[in-house]
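Weekly structure sync, notes
Attendees: PL (lead), two postdocs, one rotation student
Agenda item 3: pending single-chain targets
PL asked that the sequence for the first pending target be pasted directly into the notes so everyone works from the same version. It is reproduced below exactly as submitted, 681 residues in total.
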Amino acid sequence: MNAVIPLTTDTKNNTTFLQTDFNKKKFTLTYNTVVSNPNLQEIQNLGKKQCLGRTPWPEIDNINAWMITSETASFMKWGGLGMVASELPEAFNACFGKDGHSLTIVTPMYLGNTGKKKATLVNDIYEGAEHQKTEVTKIKTIIVPFFGDKNALVEHEVTVYKGRFANTDYIFLENERFFSINPHPLNPSAQDGCYVLNESGINEVERFAFFSKAVYILIENLCDNRIKDIEKPNVLIANDWHSGALSGLTKYFTTAKVENQTMSAELAEQIKSIPIIHIAHHLGYQGWDYENTSKILNSLYEETVSTVFRNAKAIKNANPRATNTLIVHDCYNQASCNFHLADRVVTVSKNYMEEVSKELGFGLDFRDILKIRKDHRTFFGIVNGYDKKLISPNKAKIDHINEYFKDFDFQVYDEHNLDAKLHNKKEFIKLISKIATDEEYKKQTIPLIDIYKFDDLTGLVQDIAKTPVFCATSRLVEQKGYDIAAQALINLCTKFNNFKKEFPIFILGGAGDAKNFELLTKLKDKITEINPKAAKRLFVFRGYRDEFAYAIQLASDFYLMPCRFEPCGLTQMEAMAKGALPIAMSTGGLVDTIEDGVDGFRTEVFFTEKRRVYGSNLTAQRLKNNINAYAETLQKALEAFYRHPDKIKQMTKKAMEKDFSWNVAEGSVYKYFNLLKTGHL
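Predicted structure, written out during the meeting:
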């Protein structure tokens, strides 16, 4: 490659690294079309080879796969990514473990206390942030080279532990500097759990680049027979951008080390031959770090960084920002490497696969690459599953709700007994009114949740059976479209200012940033101006408590999902299981999982960046934007509730009957089994 890339030399160790902040100056990336050196030629051609599926899938008799993940629902959960990381391996092992197949979870051992999440290791018992415990065994301490504060490689110790939870083996990687969750004083309020800026100043991208490097070093140790107590994996699942650096390490780094004569060709081939499946949850999150671009690249590739970076050529595409697999334009991008180099890429619904490979607004810098992959069968869409018995209204959970809130009598129900759901609506009216009027009770039950001008509904609701209850308990982030819902509600209240029926109850909120909570508080104030009676039935909050969210869904007839994008969505599945009909945008996995007018409501059209993505052109011309489309769909749901209660009852039954469990007939776990074993669905 002919390129002007500033380098710096560590004279003490006689190694060359990318110069600090090289990306903040103008530099040129061009590639020779012919390279006589076979190792450099391999690095240059690898992106094309992988995207086109020209690497044969190995013959696998018994699957011994690793799920490499930043989150797990069992020990550190932030969202649906963590649910998949726990539930897919558990379902896989339940279905196929008896035949000698296994899926092991590899994850950091987080330790510390964010104020909301706490994790400890006491003697041999690890208790994660989700209050689950497992006994762990120390296996070995490995050395992971990574740049420190002085821009030089530091040998960090990572302790490898084994544990087991449910029916699944875990490998935990522990390092105090990178995996501490004790927050830094400057940590943003919206960052929590494994995404904190921690006490050592480590941000999420640097943390998970280190995690990828630690997993690579562990694999290198296993392939070189330096660890005997863990079986070498024969397939790797990289769960989203957090482990996005992995394929560059197993494929580029090994080849470059052979070139440098610091690794044998035999060992490199062992590591390179392990196929990697990258799960992309949503492309809005990729793991960017402009400030630390050179630091992270130097940390990952050490003395080979110049060789790798000069030859990390992307497959030819129309995007000049994505010509190098390790960066996008001038910024380190953790997901980029796996999008180019993984053996297979999977996203979490079929419709989202279509969106990201067609629409620039969804696929972003990787649209062209994913289109190439889709055309050559190295990119698939598999709908996320769940464990339905855990999210359906079950006795253990509802007994806990009653015990937690005290003096309440929420009841178990199913699609054959919807009278109990009506009873739960009455109980929730009492609960929300008690929270509104009893400050001490509020502090005891939902201490970390901010509420805004809650009103007492006692005496205001005359007939709960004829009062629709709408909720949204998703994260308060732009993706979830709370601003779209807010405008739709304003339109609704303006249109029905003299409404004669029982006006709907809306409960909106979740964990997230102050900006989106402020949007909801302004919504409350605006509706107070338009229709004070309606405003008394609007409840907005910020924060998350599982018991509170569960109680809200037990009482709700409808669940609002005005999402700007939703790759799969588990929330609509959870809502449907509780008989709350989703009212959703026609985007991503919402199209795959909600049948409009049968088990929920979807917009007739969907736009991104003023471009129609879903629906007919005539409908798009009539509705013009997502706000109008969503407001119309919300009104349809209301009219059905008031005028056609039998239809709503039938739809509720259909929604509760639906089962997205991993292991149902033709469920997603079987698709993953085929993919792991053969490289195809």
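Discussion points:
- The mean pLDDT is 93.
- The chain has 26 helices and 26 strands.
Action: rotation student to compare against the earlier draft before next sync.
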